[in-house]
Design brief:
By secondary structure, this protein is of the alpha+beta class. Helix content is about 40%, strand content about 10%. The chain folds into three domains: about 15-100, Phosphorylase Kinase, domain 1; about 110-300, Transferase(Phosphotransferase), domain 1, CATH 1.10.510; about 315-345 and about 385-490, Recoverin, domain 1 (Orthogonal Bundle), CATH 1.10.238. Helix 6 packs antiparallel against helix 19 and helix 11 (about 350-360) crosses helix 12. The longest helix is centred in the middle third of the chain and has 25 residues, at about 300-325.
């Protein structure tokens, strides 16, 4: 799920919440499907009728959970569409809120495509099939927009197949940052996922209802581009790189892209930097590419999709390990904030940060400069003070990019036996079912080919995906996620660039918005 900078305004106004002392009285066979930070999603079996469902657990420890739960449940209760996840019920107990929905067993778009089309059989993954998926995506998003609901996190992970062996039906899931909007009103909350975020989120501080709907349409275009070419149109190893390219880079297509003229024309219509020039979801339904003009030829992009998906999984795994094994080993962030906040005013100034760093072992000569650096990094509104939201949203990312002790701790989390190497079995223990895929990434840094990764190799991997900065000479290091595949080389057709030179000049205001987006905690690329 993408991260939300501000909580929805709604309270617990959803209907039919069942109060229960233990959710396991009604459900059994809990199997973790996904970890979203303050929430987890499980597959479960209802005891009364043995039906399977998906259950989202949202911890009450996070003060924003109440409004997030209420908003998501209220939206799901009022949506009914064949391509949108079906709502079942809501529960609450002393510690958590729960949302129960349909269980989709077929996997998300990229996982399903990798499994079906990336195996030994090498089934054809055609442009016509991609168009059939986009039709369903547009149907789902268009229905939401007709109800004045914007999803705000359209990406392949949020579209799943209902069944393992059925590619005819996908549904839209995860309405955790969706919003009910009012025509004529503007909204300032910053949400999304970097590769799929629309330019207006980065160039404007407020967006109208119409622009929010247009942002969903932009994200549909990015999903289409990824499925059609095997990679995103605006890529980068860090969020900042991605944000800058979303704003300023013209739309181009890889030289070897096999998309038809109709497919490229469809994308050029959607991926307009100006939100007001994009067609609505309803208008997209009449696009020739969706009505039969898509070619029935193999796009030859599955290896590229696998590479792209591996990068995203690597980032999510590292975030999860940091959260579970490092952040959890320290004081709760809110408690840490309170300890630093010596005057108890709910804000941290530079002097308080300096005293905190001194207590953590920084010397008197560098604690003030380090405090100033932290303030510059985390102070989103530039008022010289940090509130709890600014502190919590960016603290882990700051540690990852600046503190080598965190990298060492992270390495230790993977290196379970403490021998200074990460082997295949340790990788599997941390990553689980994704170990085989993750191993392909680590192998790029396994210089001696022995199936193990040293600390230096591990640090280089983190550098390549933008988690740490490293000034050491890294010339000759292979690109982490190219996987040396010809069809994902970053070469472009210059003609396409000339015909699509639309871009936005990056002003001081936009620079401020980019920094705000970086510090808002938007991730899960």
């Amino acid at each position: 799920m993408g991260i939300c900078l501000s909580a929805p305004e709604s309270d617990l106004d959803c209907e039919g919440i069942i109060k229960i002392d233990d959710i396991r009285r009604d459900f059994t066979h809990f199997h973790l499907l996904g970890d979203g930070g303050s929430s987890n999603v499980f597959s479960v079996v209802r005891r009364s009728d043995k039906q399977e469902f998906a259950l989202k657990k949202m911890s009450k420890r996070n003060e924003m959970t109440k409004s997030l739960f209420s908003a998501e449940a209220n939206i799901l209760q009022n949506l009914s569409h064949p391509h949108i996840i079906g709502y079942e019920s809501t529960y609450m107990d002393e510690k958590n809120y729960y949302i129960v929905t349909q269980l989709c067993k077929g996997g998300d778009l990229l996982a399903h495509i990798k499994k079906k089309y990336g195996g030994a059989l090498k089934s054809k993954f055609t442009e016509a099939f991609v168009a059939s998926l986009i039709v369903q995506i547009i149907e789902a998003v268009g229905y939401c927009h007709s109800q004045n609901i914007v999803h705000r996190d359209i990406k392949p992970e949020n579209f799943v197949f209902m069944e393992h062996h059925n590619t005819e039906r996908i549904v839209l899931i995860d309405f955790g940052i969706a919003k009910r909007v009012v025509p004529g009103k503007s909204y300032s909350d910053l949400v999304g996922t970097p590769y799929y975020i629309a330019p207006e989120y980065l160039t404007k501080t407020e967006r109208t209802t119409e622009e929010l709907k247009a942002s969903d349409v932009w994200s549909i275009g990015i999903v289409t581009y990824v499925l059609g070419t095997g990679r995103p149109p605006f890529h980068g190893n860090t969020n900042e790189e991605v944000f800058r390219k979303v704003i300023s880079k013209p739309l181009k297509f890889p030289r070897k892209a096999k998309l038809s003229y109709a497919g490229k024309y469809f994308l050029k219509k959607i991926l307009k930097k100006n939100a007001h020039e994009r067609p609505t979801a309803e208008e997209l339904k009449s696009s020739p590419w969706l009505l039969g003009d898509a070619a029935d030829e193999d796009l030859d992009v599955v290896d590229g999709l696998k590479s792209f998906d591996l990068k995203n999984k690597m980032r999510r795994v590292i975030k999860r390990v940091v959260k579970d094994n490092i952040q959890g080993a320290h004081e709760d962030l809110s408690a840490m904030f309170s300890n630093i906040d010596k005057n108890g005013d709910g804000l941290l100034d530079q002097d308080e940060l300096t005293h905190f760093l001194l207590s953590q072992g920084y010397g008197k000569h560098n604690a003030p400069s380090k405090a100033a650096e932290i303030m510059e990094k985390l102070d989103v509104d530039k008022d010289g003070e940090l509130n709890i939201e600014e502190f919590e949203a960016a603290w882990v990312d700051f540690q990852l990019s600046e503190d080598e002790k965190i990298v060492a701790s992270l390495f230790d989390c993977f290196d379970e036996n403490g021998d200074g190497r990460i082997d295949a079995s340790e990788l599997k223990n941390i990553i689980g079912d994704d170990a085989a895929d993750m191993q392909k990434i680590f192998k790029l840094f396994d210089d001696d080919g022995n199936g193990e990764v040293s600390y230096d190799e591990f640090a280089k991997a983190l550098q390549e995906i933008g988690f740490i900065n490293n000034n050491k000479d890294d010339a000759g290091i292979k690109g982490l996620f190219s996987l040396e595949m010809d069809d994902v080389q970053l070469d472009f057709d210059e003609g396409d660039e000339e015909k699509n030179a639309e871009q936005i000049e990056i002003t001081d205001e936009i620079e401020s918005n980019i920094l705000k987006a970086q510090n808002a905690g938007i991730d899960d690329m």
